[in-house]
Amino acid sequence: MNGYLLRRVAATVAVLWGVSVAVFALIHLVPGDPVRLALGTRYDAATYAALRHRAGLDRPLLAQYVHWLGGALHGDLGVSFRSEDPVSTVIGERLPATASLAVAAIVVALGIAVPLGLLSALRPQSVFDRAATVLSQVGISVPDFWLGILAILVLAGLLGWFPAGGYVPLTEDPARWFDHLVLPALTVGVVSGAVLTRFVRASALEVLNEDHVRTARAKGLPEWTILRRHVLRNAAVPVLTVIGIQLAYLLSGVVVVEIVFSWNGLGQLALQAVQSRDYPVLQGAVLLFALVFLVVNLVVDLLYAILDPRISLT
Asked: Would you say 213 and 228 are in contact if contact means Cβ atoms under 8 Å apart?
């Protein structure tokens, strides 16, 4: 296990380095001058030259990358061109919003997918199974921004149950934070839940047809006991992969949903960084997204071995 972990950590570092090179090269190919955009109407030649020098943009690209990488290795991701705040501070301010939305959306998705998927697998080709299949297909097909707009029109506009958008930090007002969280979490959670339902059903159906489950049924064990003892744990292994991908995707910032609900998260931050050519923030955000994907995948692989001892991590 220790050797496996060391290899995965080494691979994670190598991938992050590759991502940093690719992102650095790509964003410098994008046309537009970040200092000119940051100055706006305050532009004058002397200020422009001073800011370019302070940001290190008057140096060769390789020197800029080496300087940025050296800082990143010490936890310094540079300073935002736009706000002139440290990038780590800018990202840290947005991270709680995206993390809370991602966790809430996964809870909603599992609350939909697990019961629907299991009941469909227990009653294949039944009316319930067909209805659940249609609903999950609809959920997969519907764009999340359209679902978000519909939720705003009905639940916020028509019924007035929840605010139409905005973000309130948990530490500032927990009740208002929850009110603002419900609609974006439902929007993302319904779409993710529709995807997960298909995987839960397929995985549970496969386990239910295995010999040890047929033997348990032949012994006369109740269906709930068979489900709890023999199905849930085995069916969870493939489903875990999809949950990990969904969680990593959500933690990386659900850009469209954050824009629809004015949710002040990492997705909006990355979009604003692209629009303003804020290179340091964009590099820091993409590096964080890559790290989230790698860490979530590592945790999922470790959970495989815990859920199924037959899986060996070597």
From this structure: no
DSSP 286: H
Measured distance CA(158)–CA(170) in Å, rounded: 26
pLDDT at 314: 65
**What is the value of pTM for the model shown?**
0.80
CA dist., res. 139 & res. 88, Å (int): 36
Take residue 94 and report the two structure tokens written for it. 């947005």
- Average pLDDT score over residue span 117-126: 85
Amino acid (one-letter) located at 264: N
β-bridge partners, 86: 79
If pLDDT is split at 50, 70 and 90, which confidence band does 260 have?
Answer: confident
pLDDT in tens, 141-171: 888 888 888 989 998 888 889 998 888 888 8
Find tokens 């003892």 and name the residue.
229
Bridge partners (DSSP) listed for residue 87: none
Q: How far, in Å, CA of 240 to CA of 77, rounded?
A: 33
> From CA 262, how far away is CA 256, in angstroms rounded?
10
Is the per-residue pLDDT at 253 higher than 70?
Answer: no
- For residue 277, the SS3 value is coil
